[in-house]
Amino acid sequence: MSRQHSQSLRSSACSNATGTCKKQVDSTLTLLKHGRRLDKEDDTKSFASSHWDTDLEDDFPGKDKGVSDKETYLKTCDALGVTPVSRFGNEIGQEEIKINHRFLKGMGMTAIASALLRNKTTSKLNIAHNELSIESGKCIGRLLKSNRALTELNLANNNIRKEGIIAIAQALPHNDTIRKLDLARNGLGDSDARLLAEGIEKNDSLFIVNLSYNNFSEASGVSFGDALTYNNSLLELDLSWNFIRRAGEEAIAKSLRYNSSLEKLNLSWNGLDDCGTKELGESLKRNSTIKELDISNNRISDKGLINIAVGIEGSDKLEVLNVSHNLIFGSFEGVKKVLEGLHKNGAPALRVPRHLRHKA
């Protein structure tokens, strides 16, 4: 074979590969952009309504053979006019990708999402501390609906806007692989809680959800209480450092009567008072799965702890009960009731701190 002919063949092969990659990038961008339409509606609109059905699509194209995820990413960055994140480019294909503190904007996140849409090897994605834009949040939602490899997604400290939360919440019922979702420190409020609660309720793959350090109030507690009543796959829920009180704490406490999966619940630093403790005590008697309950750093008094103690007597699963830093003063009647319950062998699994055992 002549040198000229050999060079011609190599040139043709390179041209075909470049054309294939460009085709993949163009089709991916077209579909990512197709999902950007989002009509404005009142905050009370449920995402279950057909109004939201146009935001996400199922027909992402299959990945063309011979085009790597890194090639797709670099070409997409070039097409969008954004600078590639070198760390992401180097970690594509690895089990875990961490790209924190990169201040990813809309186009930057679009490029990353395009590379991960059909990725089958990365199971953990950490993009915390990036101040994601509205468009970035929506890209995450589309990624969740399409990708079938991600099992852990960390979106903490991103100040995700409502449009992004809508997209993420919409995707959850369609995703059967995600196991852990972290949305801590995003400034989320009651309208966001309503959307996320619906998504969590209809998802049966999530095991761990972190929603701490947000702005959830009583209404949010009611929403999450409804979700826990009907969801029977979630194992851990962290709602610490919020403002879930009164009706909210009652709803969550009552949901534990019907939930048959939750093992760990953190409600510390919420301003809880005695309002929901009677419900909590009754629920603990009936619940057969809860192992760890953290209600520390709240405003629960002796009276409230006495209510909770009633439930401890009937619980055979509870291992850890954290009630530290509450308003337990005076005669410590609540503590006494808890320890009396233990002596009656009502909670054989509960681990009692050594310094409290001598008080029984």
Automatic annotation (TrEMBL):
<dbReference type="InterPro" id="IPR052394">
    <property type="entry name" value="LRR-containing"/>
</dbReference>
<protein>
    <submittedName>
        <fullName>Leucine-rich repeat-containing protein 74B</fullName>
    </submittedName>
</protein>
<dbReference type="InterPro" id="IPR032675">
    <property type="entry name" value="LRR_dom_sf"/>
</dbReference>
<feature type="region of interest" description="Disordered">
    <location>
        <begin position="1"/>
        <end position="23"/>
    </location>
</feature>
<dbReference type="InterPro" id="IPR001611">
    <property type="entry name" value="Leu-rich_rpt"/>
</dbReference>
<dbReference type="Pfam" id="PF13516">
    <property type="entry name" value="LRR_6"/>
</dbReference>
